[in-house]
């Protein structure tokens, strides 16, 4: 019953790996999905965000205004730390609930936590395996420009706002090189799955 942390910087191909592992039968728990859930309208987390950063963080429908919040915390380490202090504990609690539910349903399950901010927020947790999706920054910049319509400057700023690649790679038990073709990434993921199946 391995619990695997899957991480990688923005545009590193992490989602491709998660999808492939799910196709093989892994239970994928999506950290970003949990973040959106715990910040939904009326939630205790959203009330704390509004209390900390002002009601301007809320849209008229009561949902979080992600753009407004992003503008406040981006590049402001103190504001980001305050936000993380509100959000991360709730995400940790909910992710553990989902891990437990998955293993209760199938003690032999392979559970994959798809978590962009492992190095920043969950590096000290107990994982059976840490898998890092890795592509050089220039490759990721090109993907962000081509696939997400960012300018090169915006793409580099987003990458710079995340953990350094060396910090992420230092956590890795397995590195999947995603700088090549989609087929090459999928093939490496298939090899990982075979290794997990043999454990």
TrEMBL record:
InterPro entries: Depp_CoAkinase, P-loop_NTPase. Pfam families: CoaE (PF01121). It catalyses: 3'-dephospho-CoA + ATP = ADP + CoA + H(+). The lineage of its organism: Bacteria, Bacillati, Actinomycetota, Actinomycetes, Micrococcales. Its EC number is 2.7.1.24. Its main location: cytoplasm. Belongs to the CoaE family. The keyword Transferase applies. ATP binds at residues 11-16. It comes from Microbacterium candidum. This is Dephospho-CoA kinase. It is an enzyme of class 2 (transferase). Catalyzes the phosphorylation of the 3'-hydroxyl group of dephosphocoenzyme A to form coenzyme A. GO terms for molecular function: dephospho-CoA kinase activity.
């Amino acid at each position: 019953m391995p619990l695997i942390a899957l991480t990688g910087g923005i545009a590193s191909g992490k989602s491709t790996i998660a999808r492939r592992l799910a196709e093989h039968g892994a239970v994928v728990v999506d950290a970003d999905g949990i973040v959106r859930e715990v910040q939904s309208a009326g939630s205790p987390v959203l009330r704390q965000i509004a209390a900390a950063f002002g009601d301007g963080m809320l849209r008229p429908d009561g949902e979080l205004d992600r753009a407004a919040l992003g503008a406040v915390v981006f590049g402001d380490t103190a504001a980001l730390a305050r936000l993380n202090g509100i959000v991360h504990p709730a995400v940790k609690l909910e992710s553990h609930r989902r891990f437990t539910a998955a293993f209760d349903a199938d003690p032999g399950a392979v559970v994959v936590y798809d978590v962009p901010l492992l190095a920043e927020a969950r590096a000290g947790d107990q994982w059976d395996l840490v898998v890092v999706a890795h592509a050089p920054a220039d490759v990721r910049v090109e993907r962000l420009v081509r696939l997400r319509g960012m300018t090169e400057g915006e793409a580099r700023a987003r990458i710079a706002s995340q953990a350094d690649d060396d910090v992420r790679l230092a956590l890795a038990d397995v590195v999947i090189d995603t700088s090549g073709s989609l087929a090459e990434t999928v093939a490496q993921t298939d090899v990982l799955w075979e290794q997990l199946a043999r454990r």
